[in-house]
Amino acid sequence: MFRRLLFVLALSSSACLPKDTRPPPGELHVVATADDALTSGVDTADGWHVTFDRFLVSLGHASVEGDACIGYSDPTYNRVLDMARGGPQDVNLVFAYGQCDFDFELSSPWEDSVLGAGVTAADRTAMRTPGSDPYVTDAGISIAVEGRARRDQVEKTFAWSYRRRIDYSTCQVTIDGKKVVGVSVAREQTTTVDLDVNGAVLFADHLAADEASFRFDAFAAGDTNDDGIVTLDELAGVALASVGTAGAYSDAKPQWATLADYLYDGLFAKVVRYRGNGTCETEIFANDRTPH
Length: 292
Known about the structure:
Blueprint: H1 2-15, E1 26-34, H2 36-40, E2 42-43, E3 49-65, E4 69-73, E5 78-82, E6 89-106, E7 114-115, H3 121-128, E8 143-151, E9 154-162, E10 164-175, E11 178-181, E12 183-185, E13 190-197, H4 217-221, E14 229-230, H5 232-235, H6 240-243, H7 259-267, E15 272-274, E16 279-286
Parallel strand pairs: 1-13, 5-7, 9-14
Antiparallel strand pairs: 1-6, 2-3, 3-5, 3-6, 3-8, 4-6, 6-10, 6-12, 8-9, 10-11, 10-16, 13-15
């Protein structure tokens, strides 16, 4: 009798729920795409061949908004991806309809962050564990890079972590000379948004892509103890004034005194690009939120 009463109550309460009168949504499929350098390496202007063993990024929390946008669900998760494996790789799936502003986030993983191919739970834990560097104190990792550079018989390895969070909002791209803000999502159709992940940009000598060459000599020179490993601490000893010749690194901000500054404060923020040549408004913070 008691079970029958519960069943009747459940039916009556569900009958009171309002019907969803919104039109059927479309799907916004957010993917991450790797540049050629991440899978095949890059040849620098000064004769080095740079390759990446791993390139872990923690991306997600895509969201849509706007007066002409109907959002049905925003994913509350991110993914940890090894972009050295290439792409495209899934990031998020958003259900929406209309002309939508598009936002996303680069941040340290959460406890339930989804793992991409080749990424382990130990990787996620390592990126979630707070640590410090000359720029950030007690913060998780958004990007973890491991690679090597070779020239003739010389090899240098590197392993760097980026401990800042970047919130990307109001993303836009130029298509056929016209600036397009956000994305258009049609009902019952799938629209794909590419987040391009660029490995080669870490060795650019200019922040503007159309003015940059890729160089490694200054990084190799930072290996002052000649152990074959180029660390972020060693790059903090490479003065930009000593390597900024022929326009290289000439666009550094006044407070950037070293190659480590240029890499950490300038180039890491260029790793993720919206739809290739797109731009977004960005806010940059330390990964100092309490891990979930």
